[in-house]
């Protein structure tokens, strides 16, 4: 968890799954608090906007909660007063919102399920890639990666590239669910790079800062040591 000190943890078994709980302390807007937090369940369904009970939600923010509707379009995360949080409403990322002293925010529309928490960025960078060459190992040789394949499972969002300084969004074929929202995507995503030069430390970088599922099962790259 981000910005939290974990004092202890415990797990319980419920219907064949393990629930993991943490006893933590955090400082939110200068105020120290002690909390019992629970890891959310993993995302394993077709749409991210499906309404479920709070204990079954898959969160992609930290220190998160299912917000309470206090009337009209106002929703509350009482443990986050005056905080800037990332908001996901019925599966749609609404971006950052600033809560008031009570942890309330007016979202401007009525929603069924609203999730709030601190945003974070997931990052993964591979080691220098082995491309193979006519004379043996090419891991430390100058090479150019011209294609990568990501095998993804029920994903929305995400970025890829060959370094943190230059990434591209994963572009999915648009598939719309029954209620107008995007379905999560499963399959192989392949792309080509056309503007790469030869480098000795070439690697693949993937990241996601969206509060949406991004599950990568496999990364395959093709590297050239000569044209």
Structure overview:
With 227 residues, this protein is mostly beta strands. The protein is built from no helices and 17 strands. It has strands at 4-14, 17-28, 31-38, 62-66, 68-71, 74-76, 84-89, 92-98, 104-106, 114-118, 122-125, 144-155, 159-163, 166-169, 185-192, 205-208, 216-224. A four-stranded antiparallel beta sheet has the order 4-10-7-8, with no helix packed on it. A hairpin with a 2-residue loop joins strand 2 and strand 3. The protein is elongated, with a radius of gyration of 21 Å.
Key features?
4-stranded antiparallel β-sheet; 227 residues; 17 strands; mainly beta
Secondary-structure blueprint:
Layout: E1 4-14, E2 17-28, E3 31-38, E4 62-66, E5 68-71, E6 74-76, E7 84-89, E8 92-98, E9 104-106, E10 114-118, E11 122-125, E12 144-155, E13 159-163, E14 166-169, E15 185-192, E16 205-208, E17 216-224
Antiparallel strand pairs: 1-2, 2-3, 4-10, 5-6, 6-9, 7-8, 7-10, 11-16, 12-15, 12-17, 13-14, 13-16
Structural class: mainly beta
Run of helices and strands: EEEEEEEEEEEEEEEEE
Q: Find the count of extended strands (DSSP E, 2+ residues).
A: 17
State the strand order across the main sheet: 4-10-7-8
Q: Helix content range of the residues, please? A: under 10%
Work out the strand percent. Answer: over 45%
Q: What global shape is seen?
A: elongated
Please, what is the average pLDDT?
Answer: 78
**Spatial extent as radius of gyration:** 21 Å
Largest sheet: 4 strands, antiparallel
Q: So how many helices?
A: 0
Number of domains: 2
